[in-house]
Amino acid sequence: MPIQIELVPLLVGLVTAVGGGAGIAKLIDGLLKIRAGMSAKESERKVDIVQQRDRAIAREERAWRLVDAEAEKRRKTQEWAAHLARQLILAGIDPTPEPVLEQTVTRAQLKELRDSDD
Known about the structure:
Layout: H1 7-18, H2 20-90, H3 107-117
């Protein structure tokens, strides 16, 4: 009658007898340490990405505040211009929508006018 030998129990017994159990434990420990190292690097990367996102959100909020402030200034300037136009109309003067550049005063002329007032 031939002897039947199971391969898996034979290999397990051989590895255990030669001290391979300690080697397998070290191998598993090494794999876990490698994985932990990768996890730490991934965690650092996630923190960097979160910080970048937070800075981008802060920049966007700052930009929107500037846009809102500029729009507010523009509205106030338009309101003031409308008020002045109304005063001109009430005084009988026709306010033109935009100045005629040929009729505007240059800086040099303005300086002369200011100097002559003294």
